[in-house]
Amino acid sequence: MIDLSALTIAKAAAALRAKEFSSRELVEAHLSLAHEKNPSLNAYLELFEESALAEADEADKRITAGEEGSLLGIPIGVKDNILIKDKISSGGSKILATHRAVYDATVISRLREQGAVFLGRTNLDEFGMGSSTENSAYGPTKNPHDLTRVPGGSSGGSTAALAAHIALGALGTDTGGSCRQPAALCGVVGMKPTYGAVSRYGVMPLGASLNQVGEMAKTVADVETLFHAVRSHDKMDNISCDYEARRFKATPTQAKRVGVPRKFLEKGLPSDVVANFEASLARLRERGYEVVDIELPFIDYALAVYYVLLPAEISTDLARYDGMRYGVYLPGANLLKDYMRSRGEGFGKESRRRIMLGTYVLSHGYYDAYYNKARAIRQAIVSDFKRVFSGPEAVGAIATPTTAAPAFKIGEKVDDPLAMYLEDIFTVTANIVGCPAISVPSGTVDREGVRLPLGFQLMAPHFGEELMFAIAKDAEGNTV
Amino acid sequence: MLSKSDIDKLAELARLGLVDEEKAGLERDLSAILGYVDKLQEAKVEFTDELIDENLPVNAMREDGEPHESGLYTEALLAQAPKRKGDYLVVKAIIEK
């Protein structure tokens, strides 16, 4: 039997090439463990038993034929807002319960080229809206470290699958921290690429000016492999661009200097979270890094900016679900009532709340006060980041804790949207700026006698992923 | 901050059928969230059209045209329509008699 708990993409790829086991055996081991664990976790909404084994057999043939492929035969979980041809793509929403994807998302095509095996579709907050995976129409996902707690969100199904060793890698989307925050709460690695680095064609739209397809795995090296596999310049996504032409080049001094926005972190962090963060900084110092204090005057506004821009974009993004072309249709007395019923009953509570909020901030009389003000502050935050990432004092990355606390209890924040939104306080900035960011496991803290994971976040300059991975590897504890 | 009639108006604009209980909750929740985001007003900045960083990606435009051969996905897409008649979607009349 293959020991999945000690396995990474890198180790599995080496074992597959050495014929220690086949991709079929690897996929069967994952499916068998998933059957045991998924009923209590609800990490996967569906396991693609049949197609996964067929893809594994195909990968085995390619391995025997000596073909290259960075993910040849490696089982991957995919967040259920990324289209896989012919599979149900629900977005975690009742409104798309029976919707089948007509084509592959570009990231899926890219993974297919590298020989990946798709194990199943993972649970999420409806369309990616949430920080706990409780906003799924298909029930919450549980945290493998403590089944009474949330895995984080919105890519909580993906990170729970990784933490439970029922996937070696996973894809998600990150609009405000949706890969990094659940990665931190589940004790795995999660990243958000630079805005424009990865195509979003075939990904259900949510906050087009903020989101990217994120990669998650058990180690930084595995996340790097996934990122390299999915990165592309795709004409089907109008913000996708030529990465090589823009690649960030750091000086040796910058590559070994990490900035900490101390003022921003001063407020209300539990002492064990602070100690955990300081331990990660100490590890970096031991490995030759200079850790400096930096000032980001506008970062305090980041979450408020986010919760104006995002709902505004969401109210537009979700206008497409109208009960006319696909998805749930619930008839009313006339066309208007058809819309009102299909959308009112098809969307979940958080989606309805954000549509309402977005409609408000975009409505006449409030547009300047909220939307334009948020855009102006966003520019100021981008300028702040550009300043700390350039010049003789430039830092190679900005470090923060990924979250202010470990995983919270299921149900604890569902009736308090503002408390839920504050979960994203450290992660949203990278989406507002468009820079890459990663969360690496930084050890655990005790809550009610259970050891719960925390994450250490690094934000790097635009198109500075290589720099970010190098620092993240030095910050990474031995987790697998 | 938001009144019941504000919520009714927004729900209609957003085409969302909401029950009364939820409307009351939204009055409370949206007011709390807007109370938080009101801190934006403290920041003394104005939007500028100046490009902050030329290295950042901007929207790429393409020529208007056929992205693929016409009809390639028609059947697969229409198969998921709630109501269809041939290659048309069936919807109720906008203007009633």
TrEMBL record, chain A:
Gene3D superfamilies recorded: Amidase signature (AS) domain
Q: Where are the transmembrane segments?
A: none
Q: Which residues form the Amidase domain?
A: 25-467
Record key words, sorted? ATP-binding, Ligase, Nucleotide-binding, Protein biosynthesis, Transferase
Q: Name one GO cellular component term.
A: glutamyl-tRNA(Gln) amidotransferase complex
Annotated active site residues, numbered on this chain, are 79, 154, 178
Give an example GO molecular function. Answer: ATP binding
- Can the keyword rRNA-binding be found in this entry's annotation? no
For this chain's UniProt record, which GO biological process terms are given?
translation
**Reactions the enzyme catalyzes:** L-glutamyl-tRNA(Gln) + L-glutamine + ATP + H2O = L-glutaminyl-tRNA(Gln) + L-glutamate + ADP + phosphate + H(+)
Q: What is its EC number?
A: 6.3.5.7
Q: What does this protein do?
A: Allows the formation of correctly charged Gln-tRNA(Gln) through the transamidation of misacylated Glu-tRNA(Gln) in organisms which lack glutaminyl-tRNA synthetase. The reaction takes place in the presence of glutamine and ATP through an activated gamma-phospho-Glu-tRNA(Gln).
| Assembly, per entry | Heterotrimer of A, B and C subunits.
The protein depicted here goes by the name Glutamyl-tRNA(Gln) amidotransferase subunit A
Automatic annotation (TrEMBL), chain B:
One GO MF term attached to the UniProt entry: transferase activity
Which enzyme class?
ligase
Q: Which organism is it from?
A: Candidatus Vogelbacteria bacterium CG10_big_fil_rev_8_21_14_0_10_51_16
Please give the catalytic activity noted in the UniProt record. Answer: L-aspartyl-tRNA(Asn) + L-glutamine + ATP + H2O = L-asparaginyl-tRNA(Asn) + L-glutamate + ADP + phosphate + 2 H(+); L-glutamyl-tRNA(Gln) + L-glutamine + ATP + H2O = L-glutaminyl-tRNA(Gln) + L-glutamate + ADP + phosphate + H(+)
The reply on keyword Cell inner membrane is: no
Gene3D superfamilies in the record:
Glu-tRNAGln amidotransferase C subunit, N-terminal domain
Enzyme Commission identifier(s): 6.3.5.-
Q: InterPro entries under this entry? A: Asp/Glu-ADT_sf_sub_c (IPR036113), GatC (IPR003837)
Q: In Gene Ontology terms, what is a biological process of this protein?
A: regulation of translational fidelity
The UniProt family comment states:
Belongs to the GatC family.
Q: Name one Pfam family in it.
A: GatC
> What is the protein name stated in its UniProt record?
Aspartyl/glutamyl-tRNA(Asn/Gln) amidotransferase subunit C
Please explain the role this protein plays, according to its UniProt record.
Answer: Allows the formation of correctly charged Asn-tRNA(Asn) or Gln-tRNA(Gln) through the transamidation of misacylated Asp-tRNA(Asn) or Glu-tRNA(Gln) in organisms which lack either or both of asparaginyl-tRNA or glutaminyl-tRNA synthetases. The reaction takes place in the presence of glutamine and ATP through an activated phospho-Asp-tRNA(Asn) or phospho-Glu-tRNA(Gln).
| Oligomer and partners | Heterotrimer of A, B and C subunits.
UniProt keyword annotations, A-Z: ATP-binding, Ligase, Nucleotide-binding, Protein biosynthesis, Transferase
Q: What SUPFAM superfamilies does this protein map onto?
A: Glu-tRNAGln amidotransferase C subunit
